[in-house]
Amino acid sequence: MNLGAVLKKARITAGLSQEEMALRMFIPRSTVSRLENDKTILKADDLIRWCHITQAQEMLVALLVGVDPTTIIQNISMLIGGFITWI
């Protein structure tokens, strides 16, 4: 699993730039870039904060149980789409 890509997707989905994410995380923008490019390791408490800021708590749960978060998010999107079509 490429955690950096998952972090980047969560940030972009939340509508945040790297600069905005850095400000909310209290880290330099360059650190956000390094995290998203798997050049540095994210601490557990920072991962939790990232998920709260981006409203991607499902990503955190998927990571904790060892499931690829991208797959979970795609499946949820398909379920929601099917539910809306059903209504």
Automatic annotation (TrEMBL):
Pfam families (UniProt xref): HTH_3
Q: Which segment of the chain is annotated as a signal peptide?
A: none
The HTH cro/C1-type domain sits at 7-49
**Which PROSITE patterns does this one have?**
HTH_CROC1 (PS50943)
* This protein's name: Transcriptional regulator with XRE-family HTH domain
Question: Where is the organism placed in the taxonomic lineage, from the top?
Answer: Bacteria, Bacillati, Bacillota, Bacilli, Bacillales
